[in-house]
Automatic annotation (TrEMBL):
Record lineage: Bacteria, Pseudomonadati, Pseudomonadota, Alphaproteobacteria, Rhodospirillales
Family: Belongs to the cytochrome P450 family.
Keyword list, A-Z: Heme, Iron, Metal-binding, Monooxygenase, Oxidoreductase
Protein name: Cytochrome P450
Function, as annotated: Cytochromes P450 are a group of heme-thiolate monooxygenases. They oxidize a variety of structurally unrelated compounds, including steroids, fatty acids, and xenobiotics.
Superkingdom classification of source: Bacteria
InterPro entries: Cyt_P450, Cyt_P450_B, Cyt_P450_CS, Cyt_P450_sf
Entry annotated with the keyword Metal-binding: yes
Gene3D superfamilies linked to this entry: Cytochrome P450
GO MF annotation list: heme binding; iron ion binding; monooxygenase activity; oxidoreductase activity, acting on paired donors, with incorporation or reduction of molecular oxygen
Length: 411
């Protein structure tokens, strides 16, 4: 490896922020404001990465072709050499998320058609029906865990539909934790966490390997069949098939789950905005964008400099990692007036929550549709929904992907 990873941290260097701190996980936004007041771009010597803290810096870096992914270099920086043999890292490297052209172009091209605007919009009636089915089961109970009983189930079923996972197999994904998002954090996993990530990839790899064989024998009208057919023509490896089906499953589930959980929590913490939404459901599409901005399911996106780049008077050296703190950018007062205020009628909201550039989230429109149909269904069917513990909810101990462990409610 020839790229410089980053400047060495001075002995005893204090981190500018600690993404594993429980207070930060509960509420990262005060820390983001402190960082932004210091500089739009700043070097964290302890973490050995740059921090982009405002909207424009994040948006520009995500679109700048002088930045991209250097996954193996990042893993070496975080964990040391000879770690790419670990199942989790090897599989992650094979995803389109961690690849660059021409591999990224080839991999993304195989799935782009499935996520075209017209095709995704045609999924709306199915999403609406699934919301109604879930509420039919839940409404008589009088209570639920919003995360476990609703926010987790809805996107899992939708992505299972798209991938062509047989209904008899879906309990594997509905009844268990399907992914580990800690491996996306800039703080290394410990050995136990890495072993759990490896085991998850091995378990799902065995399932999908078997499903691929079934689809080769009996093709269906689904995304796995399309990937297999396109992969056979484009030379898709088994690792690439496994990795990218996992990615579609993970991305298709985790962002929506946390949009629903984080968004409902925000609305119930702002009862005037919730009443406003109930009085005017026409605000729902804009409200979803505002909820994505206000408490983004994705808090940072990493990019590595391909060459020395000077931005805002500082030079980011070739091979150095930049954490684009999109959660901070979404609360940038230079972009959004009174950014810590939830305003479901805020005009022209363009959150950074789906990234940018060639890695802009393929499923952004689907996530928005699932969020919109969820809000519409809950407002119509459960107008008396009351959430518990809104002042001290239980957050997952992750930084990159922000979401709740549970969110109890009753009516």
């Amino acid at each position: 490896m020839t790229d410089t990873i980053s400047r060495p941290a001075p002995v005893g260097a204090e981190p500018l922020f600690n993404p594993r701190d429980l207070d930060f996980i509960r509420d990262p936004y005060p820390a983001y404001h402190r960082l932004r007041r210091h500089a739009d771009l700043q070097w964290d010597a302890a973490g050995k990465y740059w921090l982009a803290t405002n909207y424009d810096a994040c948006a520009n870096i995500l679109k700048d072709k002088r930045f991209g992914r250097r996954y193996e270099a990042m893993i070496e920086m975080m964990y040391g050499r000879d770690m790419m043999g670990e199942t989790a890292f090897r599989q992650m490297r094979a995803t389109m998320l961690m690849s660059e052209p021409p591999d990224h172009t080839r991999l993304r091209g195989l799935v782009t058609k499935a996520f075209s605007a017209a095709r995704v919009e045609r999924l709306r009636p199915r999403v609406r029906a699934l919301v109604a089915e879930l509420l039919d089961r839940l409404e008589p109970r009088g209570s639920m865990d919003v995360i476990r009983d609703f926010a987790h189930v809805l996107p899992v079923v939708v992505i299972c539909d798209m991938l062509g996972i047989p209904e008899d197999d879906r309990w594997l994904f509905i009844d268990t934790a399907t992914i580990t998002t800690r491996m996306l954090d800039p703080v290394p996993m410990n050995r136990l966490e890495l072993d759990e990530a490896n085991a998850m990839f091995d378990e799902q790899g065995s399932y999908f390997t078997d499903l691929f064989e079934r689809r080769r024998r009996s093709p269906g009208d689904d995304l796995i069949t399309a990937l297999l057919e396109g992969g056979d023509e484009g030379g898709l490896t088994q690792d690439e098939m496994l990795a990218n089906v996992w990615l579609l499953f993970a991305a298709g589930h985790e962002t929506t789950r946390n949009l629903i959980g984080n968004g409902l929590l925000a609305l119930h913490r702002h009862p005037d905005e919730l009443r406003r939404l109930r009085a005017d459901p026409g605000l729902i599409p804009g409200a979803v964008n505002e909820l994505l901005r206000y408490d983004s399911p994705v808090q940072y996106v990493g990019r590595t400099a391909y060459e020395d780049v000077t931005l805002d008077g500082v030079t980011i050296c070739k091979g150095q990692l930049v954490l684009c703190l999109v959660g901070a950018g979404n609360r940038d007062p230079g972009m959004f007036a009174d950014p810590d205020r939830l305003d479901i009628g805020r005009p022209d909201v363009r959150p950074l929550s789906f990234g940018g550039g060639i890695h802009f989230c393929l499923g952004a429109q689907l996530t928005r549709i699932e969020g919109q149909e969820t809000l519409a269904g809950l407002i119509d069917r459960l107008p008396g929904l009351h959430l518990h513990d809104v002042d001290s909810p239980s957050w997952q101990p992750n930084f990159a992907i922000r979401g709740l462990r549970e969110l109890k409610g009753s009516w």
